[in-house]
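pls design
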Protein backbone atom coordinates (compact mmCIF):
# COMPACT_ATOMS: atom_id res chain seq x y z
CA UNK A 1 0.00 0.00 0.00
CA UNK A 2 1.53 3.32 -1.04
CA UNK A 3 2.20 6.02 1.53
CA UNK A 4 -0.69 8.11 0.30
CA UNK A 5 -3.18 5.27 -0.07
CA UNK A 6 -5.33 5.22 3.08
CA UNK A 7 -6.36 1.83 4.49
CA UNK A 8 -9.89 1.04 3.28
CA UNK A 9 -12.53 1.56 6.00
CA UNK A 10 -14.04 -1.75 7.09
CA UNK A 11 -17.59 -1.50 8.47
CA UNK A 12 -20.07 -4.01 9.85
CA UNK A 13 -23.73 -3.26 9.11
CA UNK A 14 -25.82 -5.20 11.65
CA UNK A 15 -29.30 -5.94 10.33
CA UNK A 16 -30.24 -6.58 6.72
CA UNK A 17 -33.75 -5.16 6.92
CA UNK A 18 -35.04 -2.10 5.10
CA UNK A 19 -32.52 0.36 6.54
CA UNK A 20 -29.54 -1.97 6.92
CA UNK A 21 -29.71 -3.21 3.35
CA UNK A 22 -29.92 0.36 2.10
CA UNK A 23 -27.13 1.59 4.37
CA UNK A 24 -24.88 -1.24 3.18
CA UNK A 25 -25.35 0.19 -0.34
CA UNK A 26 -24.42 3.65 0.98
CA UNK A 27 -21.28 2.37 2.72
CA UNK A 28 -20.22 0.28 -0.28
CA UNK A 29 -20.81 3.27 -2.58
CA UNK A 30 -18.34 5.21 -0.39
CA UNK A 31 -15.71 2.60 -1.19
CA UNK A 32 -15.75 0.97 2.24
CA UNK A 33 -15.33 -2.75 2.76
CA UNK A 34 -18.75 -3.87 4.02
CA UNK A 35 -19.83 -6.94 5.97
CA UNK A 36 -23.64 -7.03 6.29
CA UNK A 37 -24.90 -9.37 9.03
CA UNK A 38 -28.55 -10.47 9.07
CA UNK A 39 -29.85 -12.84 11.73
CA UNK A 40 -32.60 -14.26 9.48
CA UNK A 41 -31.96 -16.54 6.50
CA UNK A 42 -31.86 -14.95 3.06
CA UNK A 43 -35.47 -13.83 2.51
CA UNK A 44 -34.94 -14.23 -1.23
CA UNK A 45 -34.77 -18.00 -0.71
CA UNK A 46 -37.36 -18.36 2.07
CA UNK A 47 -40.97 -19.11 1.05
CA UNK A 48 -42.95 -17.07 3.60
CA UNK A 49 -41.59 -14.25 5.69
CA UNK A 50 -43.70 -13.85 8.87
CA UNK A 51 -44.08 -10.67 10.84
CA UNK A 52 -44.49 -7.05 9.97
CA UNK A 53 -46.83 -5.23 7.62
CA UNK A 54 -46.82 -6.80 4.20
CA UNK A 55 -46.77 -3.48 2.43
CA UNK A 56 -45.93 0.01 3.52
CA UNK A 57 -46.10 3.59 2.32
CA UNK A 58 -43.00 4.99 0.67
CA UNK A 59 -42.86 8.77 0.53
CA UNK A 60 -40.41 11.50 -0.41
CA UNK A 61 -37.67 10.88 2.17
CA UNK A 62 -37.43 7.20 1.38
CA UNK A 63 -37.51 7.82 -2.36
CA UNK A 64 -34.72 10.40 -2.10
CA UNK A 65 -32.63 7.90 -0.14
CA UNK A 66 -33.19 5.20 -2.77
CA UNK A 67 -32.47 7.68 -5.54
CA UNK A 68 -29.02 8.50 -4.17
CA UNK A 69 -27.90 4.89 -4.66
CA UNK A 70 -29.72 4.51 -7.97
CA UNK A 71 -32.55 2.36 -6.65
CA UNK A 72 -35.55 4.70 -6.88
CA UNK A 73 -36.77 3.48 -10.28
CA UNK A 74 -35.99 -0.16 -9.48
CA UNK A 75 -38.31 0.14 -6.47
CA UNK A 76 -41.03 2.52 -7.65
CA UNK A 77 -41.72 0.47 -10.77
CA UNK A 78 -43.27 -2.05 -8.37
CA UNK A 79 -45.04 0.61 -6.34
CA UNK A 80 -48.69 1.65 -6.54
CA UNK A 81 -49.25 5.41 -6.28
CA UNK A 82 -51.77 6.61 -3.73
CA UNK A 83 -52.84 10.12 -4.76
CA UNK A 84 -55.43 10.56 -2.04
CA UNK A 85 -56.87 9.12 1.09
CA UNK A 86 -60.25 7.46 0.74
CA UNK A 87 -62.23 7.96 3.92
CA UNK A 88 -64.81 5.28 4.69
CA UNK A 89 -67.64 6.28 7.02
CA UNK A 90 -70.02 4.16 9.05
CA UNK A 91 -72.63 4.11 6.31
CA UNK A 92 -70.10 2.70 3.86
CA UNK A 93 -69.88 6.01 2.02
CA UNK A 94 -66.40 6.73 0.63
CA UNK A 95 -64.97 10.20 0.20
CA UNK A 96 -61.59 10.98 -1.41
CA UNK A 97 -59.36 13.83 -0.32
CA UNK A 98 -56.34 14.53 -2.51
CA UNK A 99 -52.88 14.67 -0.97
CA UNK A 100 -51.97 17.58 -3.17
CA UNK A 101 -50.93 18.06 -6.80
CA UNK A 102 -50.72 15.17 -9.24
CA UNK A 103 -47.04 14.60 -8.44
CA UNK A 104 -47.68 14.54 -4.70
CA UNK A 105 -48.47 10.91 -3.94
CA UNK A 106 -47.26 8.23 -1.57
CA UNK A 107 -46.53 4.71 -2.85
CA UNK A 108 -47.64 1.35 -1.60
CA UNK A 109 -44.62 -0.95 -1.70
CA UNK A 110 -44.33 -4.63 -0.91
CA UNK A 111 -42.02 -4.85 2.12
CA UNK A 112 -40.36 -8.12 1.15
CA UNK A 113 -39.82 -7.07 -2.48
CA UNK A 114 -38.27 -3.80 -1.33
CA UNK A 115 -35.92 -5.65 0.98
CA UNK A 116 -35.00 -8.16 -1.74
CA UNK A 117 -34.24 -5.43 -4.28
CA UNK A 118 -31.90 -3.70 -1.83
CA UNK A 119 -30.16 -6.92 -0.77
CA UNK A 120 -29.54 -7.82 -4.41
CA UNK A 121 -28.21 -4.30 -5.00
CA UNK A 122 -25.77 -4.65 -2.09
CA UNK A 123 -24.27 -7.78 -3.62
CA UNK A 124 -23.44 -5.91 -6.81
CA UNK A 125 -20.93 -3.65 -5.03
CA UNK A 126 -17.29 -4.76 -4.82
CA UNK A 127 -15.84 -5.75 -1.46
CA UNK A 128 -19.22 -6.46 0.13
CA UNK A 129 -20.25 -9.67 1.83
CA UNK A 130 -23.66 -10.56 3.28
CA UNK A 131 -23.72 -13.04 6.15
CA UNK A 132 -27.23 -14.39 6.58
CA UNK A 133 -28.26 -16.30 9.71
CA UNK A 134 -25.63 -14.37 11.66
CA UNK A 135 -26.89 -12.66 14.81
CA UNK A 136 -24.87 -9.98 16.53
CA UNK A 137 -24.50 -10.87 20.20
CA UNK A 138 -21.88 -8.52 21.65
CA UNK A 139 -19.70 -5.66 20.55
CA UNK A 140 -16.77 -3.76 22.04
CA UNK A 141 -16.96 0.00 21.48
CA UNK A 142 -13.30 0.49 22.38
CA UNK A 143 -11.79 -2.00 19.96
CA UNK A 144 -14.53 -2.16 17.32
CA UNK A 145 -14.85 -5.91 17.79
CA UNK A 146 -18.23 -7.54 17.15
CA UNK A 147 -19.27 -11.13 17.81
CA UNK A 148 -21.84 -12.94 15.67
CA UNK A 149 -23.51 -16.27 16.26
CA UNK A 150 -24.67 -18.46 13.38
CA UNK A 151 -27.59 -20.92 13.43
CA UNK A 152 -25.28 -23.73 14.65
CA UNK A 153 -24.41 -21.55 17.66
CA UNK A 154 -20.93 -21.02 16.29
CA UNK A 155 -19.49 -17.63 17.29
CA UNK A 156 -17.16 -15.49 15.21
CA UNK A 157 -15.56 -12.23 16.32
CA UNK A 158 -14.15 -9.67 13.93
CA UNK A 159 -12.78 -6.18 14.30
CA UNK A 160 -14.18 -3.24 12.34
CA UNK A 161 -13.56 0.47 11.96
CA UNK A 162 -17.29 1.04 12.47
CA UNK A 163 -20.25 -0.99 13.72
CA UNK A 164 -23.54 0.31 12.26
CA UNK A 165 -26.61 -0.82 14.20
CA UNK A 166 -29.52 -1.23 11.77
CA UNK A 167 -30.98 -4.11 13.77
CA UNK A 168 -34.41 -2.71 14.38
CA UNK A 169 -36.57 -1.72 17.34
CA UNK A 170 -35.15 -4.47 19.55
CA UNK A 171 -31.58 -3.72 18.54
CA UNK A 172 -28.74 -5.77 20.03
CA UNK A 173 -26.23 -3.00 19.24
CA UNK A 174 -28.36 -0.53 21.20
CA UNK A 175 -28.66 -3.03 24.03
CA UNK A 176 -24.87 -3.01 24.28
CA UNK A 177 -24.89 0.80 24.31
CA UNK A 178 -27.38 0.79 27.19
CA UNK A 179 -24.66 -0.65 29.43
CA UNK A 180 -22.71 2.57 29.01
CA UNK A 181 -23.10 5.58 31.28
CA UNK A 182 -24.95 8.65 30.02
CA UNK A 183 -26.81 6.63 27.38
CA UNK A 184 -30.45 7.79 27.51
CA UNK A 185 -33.13 5.28 26.57
CA UNK A 186 -36.93 5.41 26.56
CA UNK A 187 -39.48 2.96 25.22
CA UNK A 188 -43.27 2.94 25.24
CA UNK A 189 -45.67 0.19 24.23
CA UNK A 190 -49.07 1.65 23.31
CA UNK A 191 -52.35 -0.08 24.34
CA UNK A 192 -53.17 -0.69 20.66
CA UNK A 193 -52.02 -3.63 18.66
CA UNK A 194 -52.33 -4.35 14.95
CA UNK A 195 -53.46 -7.23 12.84
CA UNK A 196 -53.10 -7.67 9.11
CA UNK A 197 -56.14 -8.74 7.13
CA UNK A 198 -56.55 -9.11 3.41
CA UNK A 199 -59.04 -7.83 0.85
CA UNK A 200 -58.58 -10.15 -2.14
CA UNK A 201 -59.34 -9.24 -5.78
CA UNK A 202 -63.07 -9.37 -6.63
CA UNK A 203 -64.80 -12.07 -8.64
CA UNK A 204 -63.63 -10.41 -11.88
CA UNK A 205 -60.08 -10.63 -10.50
CA UNK A 206 -59.93 -6.84 -10.26
CA UNK A 207 -59.18 -4.60 -7.28
CA UNK A 208 -62.17 -4.70 -4.93
CA UNK A 209 -61.84 -0.97 -4.13
CA UNK A 210 -60.49 2.14 -5.79
CA UNK A 211 -56.81 1.43 -6.49
CA UNK A 212 -54.75 4.58 -6.08
CA UNK A 213 -55.87 5.49 -2.60
CA UNK A 214 -54.82 5.01 0.98
CA UNK A 215 -58.08 3.66 2.37
CA UNK A 216 -58.79 4.80 5.92
CA UNK A 217 -61.62 3.84 8.26
CA UNK A 218 -61.17 6.31 11.15
CA UNK A 219 -63.27 5.16 14.15
CA UNK A 220 -61.74 7.05 17.07
CA UNK A 221 -60.83 4.20 19.44
CA UNK A 222 -59.84 2.00 16.52
CA UNK A 223 -58.98 2.49 12.91
CA UNK A 224 -58.28 0.47 9.83
CA UNK A 225 -56.24 1.19 6.72
CA UNK A 226 -55.78 -0.61 3.44
CA UNK A 227 -52.94 -0.28 0.95
CA UNK A 228 -53.08 -1.84 -2.55
CA UNK A 229 -50.81 -4.68 -3.69
CA UNK A 230 -49.63 -5.61 -7.17
CA UNK A 231 -51.66 -8.83 -6.98
CA UNK A 232 -54.81 -6.65 -6.85
CA UNK A 233 -55.38 -7.35 -3.18
CA UNK A 234 -55.28 -4.82 -0.35
CA UNK A 235 -53.26 -5.40 2.79
CA UNK A 236 -55.64 -4.18 5.46
CA UNK A 237 -54.32 -3.31 8.90
CA UNK A 238 -56.67 -3.11 11.88
CA UNK A 239 -55.39 -1.01 14.79
CA UNK A 240 -57.30 -1.63 18.02
CA UNK A 241 -56.68 -1.84 21.78
CA UNK A 242 -55.44 -5.29 22.77
CA UNK A 243 -58.38 -5.61 25.17
CA UNK A 244 -60.75 -5.19 22.23
CA UNK A 245 -58.94 -7.83 20.23
CA UNK A 246 -59.15 -10.11 23.28
CA UNK A 247 -62.86 -9.35 23.80
CA UNK A 248 -63.72 -10.66 20.34
CA UNK A 249 -63.73 -14.31 21.32
CA UNK A 250 -66.29 -15.78 18.95
CA UNK A 251 -67.00 -15.68 15.24
CA UNK A 252 -70.38 -14.08 15.97
CA UNK A 253 -68.79 -11.26 17.96
CA UNK A 254 -66.24 -10.70 15.19
CA UNK A 255 -68.83 -10.51 12.42
CA UNK A 256 -71.11 -8.32 14.54
CA UNK A 257 -68.21 -5.96 15.26
CA UNK A 258 -67.36 -5.58 11.58
CA UNK A 259 -71.02 -5.20 10.61
CA UNK A 260 -71.31 -2.29 13.02
CA UNK A 261 -67.92 -0.64 12.56
CA UNK A 262 -66.71 -1.53 9.06
CA UNK A 263 -69.88 -2.51 7.16
CA UNK A 264 -68.47 -1.79 3.72
CA UNK A 265 -65.24 -3.68 4.40
CA UNK A 266 -66.88 -6.89 5.64
CA UNK A 267 -68.08 -8.19 2.24
CA UNK A 268 -64.73 -7.25 0.71
CA UNK A 269 -62.75 -9.08 3.41
CA UNK A 270 -65.07 -12.08 3.15
CA UNK A 271 -66.62 -13.42 6.36
CA UNK A 272 -64.95 -16.82 6.18
CA UNK A 273 -61.49 -15.42 5.41
CA UNK A 274 -61.90 -12.75 8.10
CA UNK A 275 -62.85 -15.36 10.69
CA UNK A 276 -59.98 -17.63 9.65
CA UNK A 277 -57.36 -14.87 9.78
CA UNK A 278 -58.63 -13.13 12.90
CA UNK A 279 -59.06 -16.33 14.92
CA UNK A 280 -55.65 -17.69 13.96
CA UNK A 281 -53.63 -14.49 14.43
CA UNK A 282 -52.43 -12.56 17.42
CA UNK A 283 -52.45 -8.79 17.45
CA UNK A 284 -48.87 -7.54 17.37
CA UNK A 285 -47.45 -4.85 19.64
CA UNK A 286 -46.48 -1.32 18.68
CA UNK A 287 -43.54 0.33 20.36
CA UNK A 288 -41.86 3.69 20.27
CA UNK A 289 -38.17 3.91 21.15
CA UNK A 290 -36.10 7.03 21.70
CA UNK A 291 -32.46 7.11 22.71
CA UNK A 292 -29.41 9.38 22.84
CA UNK A 293 -26.69 9.52 21.69
CA UNK A 294 -26.83 7.48 18.46
CA UNK A 295 -23.06 6.88 18.51
CA UNK A 296 -20.33 5.57 20.81
CA UNK A 297 -16.81 6.98 20.40
CA UNK A 298 -15.77 6.61 16.76
CA UNK A 299 -16.76 2.96 16.75
CA UNK A 300 -20.56 2.60 16.54
CA UNK A 301 -23.68 4.36 15.30
CA UNK A 302 -27.42 3.55 15.20
CA UNK A 303 -29.76 4.04 12.25
CA UNK A 304 -33.42 3.25 11.61
CA UNK A 305 -35.67 1.66 14.22
CA UNK A 306 -32.59 0.76 16.28
CA UNK A 307 -32.24 4.50 16.92
CA UNK A 308 -35.88 5.65 16.75
CA UNK A 309 -38.71 3.19 16.49
CA UNK A 310 -42.06 4.91 16.12
CA UNK A 311 -45.72 3.93 16.09
CA UNK A 312 -46.88 3.64 12.45
CA UNK A 313 -49.55 6.36 12.56
CA UNK A 314 -47.73 8.68 10.25
CA UNK A 315 -46.32 6.13 7.85
CA UNK A 316 -42.77 7.43 8.41
CA UNK A 317 -40.70 4.80 10.25
CA UNK A 318 -39.01 3.36 7.18
CA UNK A 319 -38.89 6.73 5.42
CA UNK A 320 -37.15 8.25 8.43
CA UNK A 321 -34.70 5.35 8.68
CA UNK A 322 -33.88 5.59 5.00
CA UNK A 323 -33.35 9.34 5.37
CA UNK A 324 -30.90 8.53 8.18
CA UNK A 325 -28.69 7.03 5.44
CA UNK A 326 -28.66 10.35 3.56
CA UNK A 327 -27.90 12.33 6.71
CA UNK A 328 -24.96 10.08 7.68
CA UNK A 329 -23.68 10.05 4.08
CA UNK A 330 -23.66 13.87 3.92
CA UNK A 331 -21.92 14.14 7.29
CA UNK A 332 -19.24 11.59 6.32
CA UNK A 333 -18.58 13.75 3.26
CA UNK A 334 -18.46 16.90 5.38
CA UNK A 335 -15.94 15.39 7.81
CA UNK A 336 -13.98 13.48 5.17
CA UNK A 337 -14.84 10.07 6.66
CA UNK A 338 -13.38 10.98 10.05
CA UNK A 339 -15.66 8.95 12.33
CA UNK A 340 -14.46 10.72 15.49
CA UNK A 341 -15.99 13.95 14.12
CA UNK A 342 -18.75 12.59 11.89
CA UNK A 343 -20.50 10.40 14.47
CA UNK A 344 -21.10 13.13 17.10
CA UNK A 345 -22.24 15.42 14.28
CA UNK A 346 -24.69 12.74 13.11
CA UNK A 347 -26.21 12.43 16.58
CA UNK A 348 -26.42 16.22 16.89
CA UNK A 349 -28.12 16.59 13.53
CA UNK A 350 -30.43 13.58 13.52
CA UNK A 351 -31.57 13.07 17.08
CA UNK A 352 -33.89 16.13 17.35
CA UNK A 353 -35.62 15.34 14.05
CA UNK A 354 -36.03 11.66 14.83
CA UNK A 355 -37.48 12.46 18.26
CA UNK A 356 -39.83 14.95 16.61
CA UNK A 357 -41.28 12.41 14.19
CA UNK A 358 -41.55 9.82 16.98
CA UNK A 359 -43.57 12.37 18.94
CA UNK A 360 -45.66 13.33 15.91
CA UNK A 361 -46.51 9.71 15.16
CA UNK A 362 -47.52 9.23 18.81
CA UNK A 363 -49.47 12.52 18.77
CA UNK A 364 -51.31 11.41 15.67
CA UNK A 365 -52.11 8.09 17.32
CA UNK A 366 -53.59 9.90 20.31
CA UNK A 367 -55.44 12.35 18.05
CA UNK A 368 -56.86 9.64 15.82
CA UNK A 369 -57.72 7.43 18.79
CA UNK A 370 -59.72 10.12 20.55
CA UNK A 371 -60.79 12.86 18.17
CA UNK A 372 -60.83 11.56 14.67
CA UNK A 373 -63.84 9.97 13.09
CA UNK A 374 -64.78 10.34 9.45
CA UNK A 375 -66.37 13.77 9.84
CA UNK A 376 -63.52 15.35 11.75
CA UNK A 377 -60.96 13.70 9.46
CA UNK A 378 -62.70 15.13 6.42
CA UNK A 379 -63.09 18.61 7.94
CA UNK A 380 -59.46 18.82 8.99
CA UNK A 381 -58.13 17.65 5.70
CA UNK A 382 -60.44 19.77 3.57
CA UNK A 383 -59.64 22.83 5.69
CA UNK A 384 -55.93 22.07 5.35
CA UNK A 385 -56.23 21.80 1.58
CA UNK A 386 -58.34 24.96 1.34
CA UNK A 387 -55.90 27.03 3.40
CA UNK A 388 -53.03 25.57 1.37
CA UNK A 389 -54.76 26.76 -1.82
CA UNK A 390 -55.27 30.26 -0.37
CA UNK A 391 -51.87 30.61 1.32
CA UNK A 392 -49.63 28.14 -0.59
CA UNK A 393 -46.45 29.68 0.77
CA UNK A 394 -47.42 29.81 4.41
CA UNK A 395 -50.06 27.15 4.97
CA UNK A 396 -48.35 23.91 3.97
CA UNK A 397 -50.26 21.03 5.60
CA UNK A 398 -48.15 19.12 8.05
CA UNK A 399 -48.75 15.85 6.21
CA UNK A 400 -47.47 17.53 3.02
CA UNK A 401 -44.30 18.76 4.74
CA UNK A 402 -43.68 15.34 6.28
CA UNK A 403 -44.51 13.19 3.27
CA UNK A 404 -43.70 15.33 0.23
CA UNK A 405 -40.70 17.38 1.31
CA UNK A 406 -37.41 16.87 3.13
CA UNK A 407 -38.09 19.75 5.50
CA UNK A 408 -36.63 18.64 8.83
CA UNK A 409 -39.26 16.89 10.91
CA UNK A 410 -38.69 19.27 13.82
CA UNK A 411 -39.04 22.35 11.58
CA UNK A 412 -42.18 20.93 9.98
CA UNK A 413 -43.77 20.48 13.37
CA UNK A 414 -42.71 23.93 14.56
CA UNK A 415 -44.30 25.42 11.45
CA UNK A 416 -47.41 23.38 12.10
CA UNK A 417 -47.62 24.66 15.66
CA UNK A 418 -47.76 28.15 14.18
CA UNK A 419 -50.51 27.01 11.84
CA UNK A 420 -52.45 25.46 14.70
CA UNK A 421 -52.23 28.72 16.64
CA UNK A 422 -53.45 30.68 13.61
CA UNK A 423 -56.23 28.17 13.00
CA UNK A 424 -57.29 28.15 16.62
CA UNK A 425 -57.34 31.95 16.65
CA UNK A 426 -59.33 32.05 13.41
CA UNK A 427 -61.83 29.50 14.66
CA UNK A 428 -62.04 31.34 17.97
CA UNK A 429 -62.63 34.66 16.22
CA UNK A 430 -65.14 33.01 13.92
CA UNK A 431 -66.63 31.35 16.93
CA UNK A 432 -66.81 34.61 18.91
CA UNK A 433 -68.13 36.43 15.86
CA UNK A 434 -70.66 33.71 15.37
CA UNK A 435 -71.69 33.82 19.01
CA UNK A 436 -71.96 37.62 18.95
CA UNK A 437 -74.04 37.38 15.78
CA UNK A 438 -76.29 34.79 17.38
CA UNK A 439 -76.57 36.97 20.46
CA UNK A 440 -77.59 40.06 18.46
CA UNK A 441 -80.13 38.03 16.51
CA UNK A 442 -81.60 36.57 19.69
CA UNK A 443 -81.79 40.03 21.30
CA UNK A 444 -83.57 41.49 18.30
CA UNK A 445 -86.00 38.57 18.34
CA UNK A 446 -86.67 39.03 22.04
CA UNK A 447 -87.36 42.80 21.58
CA UNK A 448 -90.05 42.05 19.03
CA UNK A 449 -91.15 38.78 20.53
CA UNK A 450 -94.89 39.51 20.25
CA UNK A 451 -94.55 40.64 16.64
CA UNK A 452 -92.45 37.55 15.67
CA UNK A 453 -94.61 35.21 17.74
CA UNK A 454 -97.79 36.39 15.92
CA UNK A 455 -96.12 35.98 12.50
CA UNK A 456 -94.96 32.43 13.36
CA UNK A 457 -98.46 31.48 14.65
CA UNK A 458 -100.15 32.87 11.51
CA UNK A 459 -97.68 30.93 9.33
CA UNK A 460 -98.24 27.62 11.20
CA UNK A 461 -102.08 28.14 11.35
CA UNK A 462 -102.10 27.88 7.52
CA UNK A 463 -101.12 24.21 8.05
CA UNK A 464 -103.63 23.72 10.84
CA UNK A 465 -100.91 23.85 13.48
CA UNK A 466 -102.07 25.94 16.41
CA UNK A 467 -99.79 26.25 19.51
C1 LIG B 1 -47.82 -2.24 11.19
C2 LIG B 1 -46.69 -1.38 10.69
C3 LIG B 1 -46.88 -0.58 9.58
C4 LIG B 1 -45.85 0.23 9.11
N1 LIG B 1 -46.07 1.02 8.02
C5 LIG B 1 -45.07 1.85 7.60
C6 LIG B 1 -45.27 2.70 6.47
O1 LIG B 1 -46.34 2.69 5.87
N2 LIG B 1 -44.27 3.52 6.09
C7 LIG B 1 -43.06 3.57 6.76
O2 LIG B 1 -42.20 4.36 6.39
N3 LIG B 1 -42.82 2.75 7.84
C8 LIG B 1 -43.80 1.90 8.25
N4 LIG B 1 -43.57 1.07 9.31
C9 LIG B 1 -42.26 1.17 10.02
C10 LIG B 1 -41.21 0.32 9.33
O3 LIG B 1 -41.65 -1.01 9.25
C11 LIG B 1 -39.91 0.38 10.12
O4 LIG B 1 -39.61 1.72 10.43
C12 LIG B 1 -38.76 -0.19 9.30
O5 LIG B 1 -39.00 -1.56 9.07
C13 LIG B 1 -37.45 0.01 10.04
O6 LIG B 1 -36.45 -0.60 9.30
P1 LIG B 1 -35.12 -1.11 10.06
O7 LIG B 1 -34.27 -1.72 9.01
O8 LIG B 1 -34.61 -0.03 10.89
O9 LIG B 1 -35.64 -2.24 11.05
P2 LIG B 1 -36.26 -3.64 10.66
O10 LIG B 1 -37.08 -3.51 9.42
O11 LIG B 1 -36.89 -4.15 11.90
O12 LIG B 1 -35.00 -4.54 10.27
C14 LIG B 1 -34.07 -4.92 11.27
C15 LIG B 1 -33.32 -6.13 10.71
O13 LIG B 1 -32.29 -6.47 11.63
C16 LIG B 1 -32.31 -7.87 11.84
N5 LIG B 1 -31.78 -8.10 13.18
C17 LIG B 1 -32.37 -7.86 14.37
N6 LIG B 1 -31.54 -8.15 15.38
C18 LIG B 1 -30.38 -8.58 14.82
C19 LIG B 1 -29.13 -9.02 15.33
N7 LIG B 1 -28.89 -9.09 16.64
N8 LIG B 1 -28.16 -9.37 14.45
C20 LIG B 1 -28.37 -9.30 13.11
N9 LIG B 1 -29.53 -8.91 12.56
C21 LIG B 1 -30.53 -8.54 13.41
C22 LIG B 1 -33.77 -8.27 11.69
O14 LIG B 1 -33.88 -9.64 11.33
C23 LIG B 1 -34.22 -7.34 10.55
O15 LIG B 1 -34.00 -7.92 9.29
C24 LIG B 1 -44.60 0.24 9.78
C25 LIG B 1 -44.39 -0.58 10.90
C26 LIG B 1 -45.43 -1.40 11.35
C27 LIG B 1 -45.19 -2.25 12.55
C1 LIG C 1 -49.61 4.16 6.25
C2 LIG C 1 -49.81 5.62 6.21
C3 LIG C 1 -49.18 6.51 5.33
N1 LIG C 1 -49.61 7.75 5.61
N2 LIG C 1 -50.49 7.67 6.61
C4 LIG C 1 -51.17 8.80 7.13
C5 LIG C 1 -50.98 9.15 8.45
C6 LIG C 1 -51.63 10.30 8.95
C7 LIG C 1 -52.46 11.06 8.11
O1 LIG C 1 -53.10 12.18 8.53
C8 LIG C 1 -52.76 12.69 9.81
C9 LIG C 1 -54.01 13.04 10.52
C10 LIG C 1 -55.17 12.35 10.28
C11 LIG C 1 -56.31 12.72 10.96
C12 LIG C 1 -56.26 13.74 11.89
C13 LIG C 1 -55.08 14.39 12.13
C14 LIG C 1 -53.94 14.03 11.46
C15 LIG C 1 -52.65 10.67 6.79
C16 LIG C 1 -53.53 11.45 5.87
O2 LIG C 1 -53.60 12.69 6.00
O3 LIG C 1 -54.09 10.79 4.96
C17 LIG C 1 -52.01 9.52 6.29
C18 LIG C 1 -50.62 6.39 7.01
C19 LIG C 1 -51.49 5.93 8.10
C20 LIG C 1 -51.04 5.04 9.04
C21 LIG C 1 -51.89 4.61 10.06
C22 LIG C 1 -53.18 5.07 10.11
CL1 LIG C 1 -54.28 4.53 11.32
C23 LIG C 1 -53.62 5.97 9.17
F1 LIG C 1 -54.89 6.41 9.25
C24 LIG C 1 -52.79 6.42 8.13
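designed seq:
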Amino acid sequence: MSFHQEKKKHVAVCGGGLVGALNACYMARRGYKVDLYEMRPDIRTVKVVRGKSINLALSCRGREALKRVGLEDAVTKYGIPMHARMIHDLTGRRRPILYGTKDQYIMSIDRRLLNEIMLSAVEKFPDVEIHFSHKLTTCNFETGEATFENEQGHKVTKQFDLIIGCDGAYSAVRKQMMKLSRFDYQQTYIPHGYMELNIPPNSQNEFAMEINYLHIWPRNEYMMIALPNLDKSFTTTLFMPFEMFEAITTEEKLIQFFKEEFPDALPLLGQEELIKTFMSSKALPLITVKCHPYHVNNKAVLLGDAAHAMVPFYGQGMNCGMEDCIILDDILDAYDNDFSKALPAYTKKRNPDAKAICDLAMYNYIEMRSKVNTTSFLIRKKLDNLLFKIFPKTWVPLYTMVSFTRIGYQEAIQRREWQDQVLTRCLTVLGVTGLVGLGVMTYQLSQNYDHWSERVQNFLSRFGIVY
